[in-house]
Specification:
It contains six helices and twelve strands. By secondary structure, the protein is of the alpha+beta class. The longest helix is centred in the first third of the chain and has 17 residues.
C-alpha cells in the first residue's frame, strides 16, 4: 500500500477541498443541511448500504438527495435526516421518534453490531459517524464460549464547533446511560430514540476546518480496498470539473476490467 501513498493523499485532499468549496455561512438558529448516508462494516468501506437499511427511525420520505457524479461514485447515499440541528442552538433533549422494535429488528441490530457496522452522516458537508451499537462479554456459557450482550444506543449527542458564522467540526457520540440490551427484546417493544447537541467556539477558521478530520480520513484510507481508492480519486476529478465528465471517461469508470 506504501506505493499508493501519493494517491491516498490526493484522495484526502479531494474530500477536504470539496467540503471547503461548499462551505456556507449561517446565522444563529438557521437550518444546517443534515443528511444520513451509509451503514456497513467498519473494516470494509466498500460494502455499504443506505442508512435506513437498518430499522432506525424512518423519515416520511426516503428519497436520495441529488448528488454529483463524484459523490455517487464515492458510494455516498445522502438521504433525509430526522435530526434537526440548527446553527449554534443548544439542545438539552429532543425526541427523534418512537418505534416498535420487533424480534426481527433486534436480530438485525445484533448482526450489525457483531459485524462492526458503522454509520455515516453529513452535517454542513462535514462527515460524522459512529458504530451502530456496542457489545460486551458478560459471562461464560456452559459450552465454554463467551456470552455476549449487545446494546443499542437510544440517545445520541452531537458536539459541534463554530467560528464566526461557519460550522467547523462535528462529532456524534452515544449516551452510555441510554443503552438498550437487545437480548431483552422478547416481544415487540416500543422504544424512544432521542438526541441532544452542544456548541462551542473554535479558534480554527473555516478555511482550516479540515484539520479536525484529515488525520482520521488518512488513517481510514490506508485500509480501503483499491476499488474504494479509485472511487476517491475519481471524486477529486469530479470536484474540480466545472462541466460533465466526458462520456469516454464515464465509460472507463463504470466498465468492469477485462478478464485476465
Amino acid at each position: 500500500m506504501a506505493r499508493h501513498a501519493p494517491l491516498l493523499v490526493v484522495a484526502l485532499l479531494c474530500v477536504v477541498l470539496c467540503a471547503h468549496a461548499r462551505r456556507r455561512s449561517y446565522e444563529p438558529g438557521d437550518e444546517v443541511p443534515t443528511y444520513m448516508s451509509t451503514v456497513g462494516p467498519y473494516r470494509n468501506p466498500s460494502q455499504t448500504y443506505k442508512y435506513h437499511h437498518l430499522p432506525f427511525c424512518q423519515p416520511d420520505s426516503k428519497s436520495v438527495k441529488k448528488q454529483s457524479i463524484g459523490e455517487t461514485l464515492d458510494g455516498l447515499r445522502k438521504t433525509e435526516s430526522l435530526f434537526e440541528l440548527k446553527f449554534r442552538t443548544e439542545i438539552q433533549h429532543a425526541p427523534l421518534c418512537k418505534r416498535l422494535l420487533t424480534l426481527e429488528d433486534a436480530a438485525e441490530f445484533i448482526d450489525a453490531i457483531d459485524n462492526d457496522y458503522y454509520f455515516t452522516m453529513f452535517y454542513d458537508d462535514i462527515p460524522l459517524g459512529n458504530f451502530v451499537g456496542l457489545r460486551d462479554s458478560v459471562g461464560v456459557l456452559p459450552s465454554g464460549e463467551l456470552q455476549t450482550a449487545h446494546y443499542l444506543p437510544l440517545h445520541m449527542h452531537f458536539t459541534l464547533l463554530y467560528h464566526g458564522d461557519n460550522v467547523i467540526y462535528g462529532n456524534v457520540s452515544m449516551d452510555a446511560s441510554r443503552l438498550l440490551p437487545l437480548e431483552d427484546i422478547n416481544t415487540p417493544t416500543e422504544v424512544t430514540f432521542s438526541y441532544s447537541a452542544s456548541w462551542a467556539y473554535s479558534e480554527v477558521t473555516v478555511g482550516d476546518r479540515a484539520v479536525f478530520f484529515s488525520d482520521v480520513y488518512l488513517e481510514e484510507e490506508a485500509e480501503i480496498r483499491w476499488l474504494s481508492l479509485v472511487n476517491s480519486i475519481i471524486l477529486s476529478f469530479c470536484c474540480s470539473l466545472s462541466h460533465p465528465l466526458p462520456a469516454s471517461l464515464v465509460s472507463l469508470v463504470v466498465s468492469p476490467p477485462p478478464p485476465a
